[in-house]
């Protein structure tokens, strides 16, 4: 009988240690906070009296609230940059605390609207009107990209042609830009071909953005044919070829336009 009892005790001890180890592994800290209340109030006791015994019903609780489900309070921020669907630089905005911390404060796109930050970063409405001279907040970036573009105008080497607006529109589309024809201004002089004397020579068109800003775009003439024997082939990239204007009077304007980004990179490498 004693041996059987000892075996039972050893069995229970082994299982209790296993359970305790499992609890240590499974139990993890959580930041969830639940507010509960007793369904049956605990009995009170007077001074110098024995504490009344609590039964199982005193440990029955009713759910009141989960604090994580509370509606987040909004906090005031001042934007340091233009943020899509939020606001413009220097604007004071109110955003929920979690979204503000994750998407604006951590990436350093905004700061808390403290008196010091308001004085330093807030832009009043009158100042905004003076600063917002552009038709769009993206127009500066658009002008920079288009001014560095080398737009290849691919024309037939066999059939006669004259450069028209739709040729330029299609060339823009091939490069990934959607430019309506009514925003394109061609040179006053017509350009006709095929003419290998103007192969790889340049002219410029003017593109109007939002009916306000204008940008000059460099265009290069390239003759194309499906006949392998008559194809014009270059051993170097087009942006490394010399920039020669079709019309000599346009040469100063073409020279003033920014170079292709890869051409600038090659020049820097050669200088080193």
CATH class of the domain at 139-271: Alpha Beta
Low-confidence stretches: 17-23, 266-272
Helix content: 25-40%
Tell me the overall shape. elongated
Describe the structure.
With 272 residues, the protein is an alpha+beta fold. Among the domains are: 75-131, Ribosomal Protein L9, domain 1, CATH 3.40.5; 139-271, Ribosomal Protein L9, domain 2 (Roll). Helices cover 31% and strands 21% of the residues. The chain is built from 8 helices and 11 strands. It has helices at residues 2-26, 97-105, 115-121, 125-131, 139-147, 165-174, 251-256, 261-271; strands at residues 34-38, 61-66, 74-79, 92-96, 110-112, 150-156, 161-162, 184-185, 192-193, 202-209, 213-224. It has a 4-stranded mixed sheet with strand order 6-11-10-8. InterPro entries: Ribosomal_bL9 (IPR000244), Ribosomal_bL9/RNase_H1_N (IPR009027), Ribosomal_bL9_N (IPR020070), Ribosomal_bL9_N_sf (IPR036935).
């Amino acid at each position: 009988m004693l041996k059987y009892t000892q075996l039972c005790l050893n069995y229970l001890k082994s299982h209790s240690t296993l359970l305790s180890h499992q609890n240590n592994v499974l139990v993890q800290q959580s930041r969830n906070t639940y507010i509960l209340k007793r369904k049956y109030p605990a009995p009170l006791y007077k001074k110098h009296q024995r504490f009344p015994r609590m039964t199982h019903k005193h440990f029955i609780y009713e759910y009141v609230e989960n604090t994580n489900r509370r509606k987040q309070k909004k906090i005031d921020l001042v934007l340091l940059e233009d943020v899509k669907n939020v606001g413009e630089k220097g604007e004071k905005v109110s955003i929920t605390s979690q979204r503000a911390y994750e998407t604006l404060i951590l990436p350093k796109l905004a700061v808390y609207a403290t008196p010091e930050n308001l004085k330093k970063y807030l832009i009043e409405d009158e100042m905004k009107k003076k600063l917002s001279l552009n038709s769009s907040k993206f127009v500066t970036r658009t002008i920079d990209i288009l001014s560095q573009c080398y737009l290849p105008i691919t024309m037939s080497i066999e059939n006669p042609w004259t450069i028209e607006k739709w040729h330029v529109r299609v060339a823009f589309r091939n490069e990934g830009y959607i430019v309506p024809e009514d925003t394109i201004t061609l040179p006053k002089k017509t350009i006709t071909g095929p003419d290998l004397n103007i192969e790889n020579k340049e002219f410029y068109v003017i593109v109007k953005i939002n009916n306000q800003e204008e940008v000059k775009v460099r265009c290069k003439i390239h003759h194309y044919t499906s006949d392998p024997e008559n194809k014009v082939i270059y051993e170097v990239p087009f942006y490394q070829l010399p920039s020669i204007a079709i019309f000599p009077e346009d040469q100063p304007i073409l020279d003033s336009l920014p170079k292709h980004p890869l051409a600038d990179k090659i020049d820097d490498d050669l200088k080193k």
